[in-house]
């Protein structure tokens, strides 16, 4: 009887292992990042920062329909924040000043995936962002986009003004080809308050969209 149970357990384990699939590989793409400041019942969203992301993924397929995925990515995130003129009623103040804030971030996204078809999946999870450094650079324009940068060779270090953790739940979708190539898109909603010295109900969050491509090695 014990031998029969052992054989049955091995058989079940074998079936389970056959249904599982581990794949890994690189991914890279485009990041569209904004900052949102809230306080005193008001909120303002920055102009976007157009950057990139690069890193790798590991996918563990539990069954034909479900998988777990972990990633390690690097991306410069942030936004272009408006700076109010010292005297907004001065008619000679025609330039629009902005502060380009860049948070160099290490992202660790973890998600659960559901496969609608063999190649198409949707996912939900959370990205743990660790801000490695934070820089600010001033720019000015005439309302038609950045035309030149002030002190272009100098960036101000603002890391002491920014909290390190940027937690962002996300939803996304992926389409994978049989050869391992895949395309994905994801929206990350920043929920952590990045303002280190916030007063009262002040809050600064960083949300971002990622669109990219990658390749998965391994699998059955």
From TrEMBL:
<feature type="domain" description="Outer membrane protein beta-barrel">
    <location>
        <begin position="18"/>
        <end position="194"/>
    </location>
</feature>
<dbReference type="InterPro" id="IPR011250">
    <property type="entry name" value="OMP/PagP_B-barrel"/>
</dbReference>
<keyword id="KW-0732">Signal</keyword>
<feature type="signal peptide">
    <location>
        <begin position="1"/>
        <end position="19"/>
    </location>
</feature>
<protein>
    <submittedName>
        <fullName>PorT family protein</fullName>
    </submittedName>
</protein>
<dbReference type="InterPro" id="IPR025665">
    <property type="entry name" value="Beta-barrel_OMP_2"/>
</dbReference>
<dbReference type="Pfam" id="PF13568">
    <property type="entry name" value="OMP_b-brl_2"/>
</dbReference>
């Amino acid at each position: 009887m014990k031998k029969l149970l052992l054989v049955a357990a091995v058989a079940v384990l074998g079936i389970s292992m056959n249904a599982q699939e581990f794949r890994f590989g690189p991914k890279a793409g485009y990041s569209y990042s904004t900052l949102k400041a809230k306080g005193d019942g008001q909120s303002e969203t920055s102009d976007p920062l157009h950057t990139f992301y690069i890193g790798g993924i590991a996918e563990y397929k539990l069954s034909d329909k479900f998988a777990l995925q972990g990633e390690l990515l690097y991306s410069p995130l942030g936004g272009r924040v408006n700076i109010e003129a010292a005297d907004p009623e001065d008619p000679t103040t025609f330039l629009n000043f902005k502060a380009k804030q860049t948070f160099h971030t290490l992202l660790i996204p973890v998600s659960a995936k559901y496969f609608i078809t063999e190649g198409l999946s949707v996912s939900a999870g959370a990205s743990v962002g660790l801000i490695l450094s934070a820089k600010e650079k001033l720019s000015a324009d005439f309302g038609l986009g950045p035309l030149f940068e002030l002190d272009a060779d100098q960036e101000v270090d603002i890391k002491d003004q920014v909290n390190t953790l940027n937690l962002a739940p996300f939803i996304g979708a992926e389409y994978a080809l049989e050869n391992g190539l895949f395309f994905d898109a994801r929206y990350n909603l920043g929920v952590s308050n990045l303002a280190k010295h916030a007063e009262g109900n002040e809050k600064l969050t960083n949300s971002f969209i990622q669109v990219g491509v990658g390749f998965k090695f391994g699998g059955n």
